[in-house]
Amino acid sequence: MKKYVILFLVIQLMTFTQASLASSIPSADTSATELAQGSQEKQTETTEENNHIKPADALEVISVSKVFWSIVLILIGFLIIKIVIKIMEVIAERSTKLRITIKSLIPIIRIIIWVLISFIIIRGIYNPPIETLVAMTASVAIAVGLAAQDLLKNVFGGIMLLFDRPFQVGDKIETSNHYGEVIQIGLRATRIVTPDDSTVSIPNMELMNTAVSNSNSGELNCQVVAEIYLPIDIDTHLVRKIATEAAQVSKYIYLNKPIVVLFFNEIHQRRSYLKMRLKAYVMDIRYEFQFKSDMTEIVIKELLKQKLISRNELL
């Protein structure tokens, strides 16, 4: 009897054990699932926290120290440009042959230095993310484009003048009502010095849209024309010889190019005159008007000396 009781108890115990094991397996799966869900919830919370991190305040991005060092670098850029340009101008003035070549490099040097300073300020001091830099550049471009269209036209005109090079620093140009030597090609305007020693600023966009006459096109010499009105019956063969010799003896003459003497019939105050045009090249464009005056004086003196004309016949 006891054997049957013990056997029954053993069977019940085994049944209970199997049921306990079966019930414990789902609970383990549930625990694993709960752990996985907990891990996902933590990751979600972390992501949300990262997404809700506030951007740095403007005072932290554009701090006082960064603005200070930006101003310092800009001032250093101004100083470097002043020193470099001054040195180049001194060298150019001492070397007549290389004057125009050296001065033509000044606008390019100025732009290169400013580009380097801008790059150092943006990447070295502020170092914004590429996305922020692109967004800011686009915003600034739109704002400036709407607010300063004329200024941007002149800036683009200055850039095109540097690349297209219809003239360069040191050339003598004529545009609209102005004639003189180019002393500076800026981003907004080009400055020239007139024969009366006046500085004229011409907007670059105006130079791009109007005809520009260049007297020397990068060369040191240029053609000078002296005009003299003579009697209609004068001996042109002798006058041509005198005019040619007058140009040749001038200290400003550039003898590697030809001397030309032309005659034209013109009517002035109902009288017919012979206009002589003496064309010769000056050795340096800065002596253009001295050379013109010198040729005119020599020719008139020689004509009066040889009695080919009288004082009353001069206009």
Write up this protein.
There is one protein chain. The radius of gyration is 43 Å and the shape is elongated. Residues 1-13, 16-33 and 44-58 have low confidence and may be disordered. It is built from ten helices and eight strands. It starts with a helix and ends in a 10-residue tail after the last helix. The relative contact order is 0.07. With 315 residues, it is α+β, with helices and mostly antiparallel strands. It is 58% helix and 17% strand.
Q: Key terms for this structure?
A:
three-stranded antiparallel beta sheet, five-stranded antiparallel beta sheet, elongated, 10 helices, alpha+beta, 315 residues, disordered N terminus
Task: Write a concise synopsis of the structure shown.
This protein is an alpha+beta fold. The chain has helices at about 1-50, 60, 65-95, 100-105, 105-125, 130-145, 150-165, 205-210, 235-250, 290-305; strands at about 170-175, 180-185, 190-195, 200-205, 215, 220-230, 260-270, 270-280. The protein contains ten helices and eight strands.
Uncertain segments are 1-13, 16-33, 44-58
- Can you name the CATH architecture of the domain at 222-313? 2-Layer Sandwich
The average pLDDT score comes to 78
Percent of residues in helices comes to 55-70%
**What is the CATH third-level topology name of the domain at 222-313?**
Alpha-Beta Plaits
**How large a portion of the residues is in β-strands, by DSSP E?**
15-25%
Shape call:
elongated
Task: Give Rg in angstroms.
Answer: 43 Å
Give me the side-by-side strand order of the main sheet. Answer: 4-3-2-1-5
How many β strands by DSSP?
A: 8
Helical region count?
A: 10
Question: Structural class of the secondary structure composition?
Answer: alpha+beta
- Head-to-tail CA distance between termini: 162 Å
CATH class of the domain at 222-313: Alpha Beta
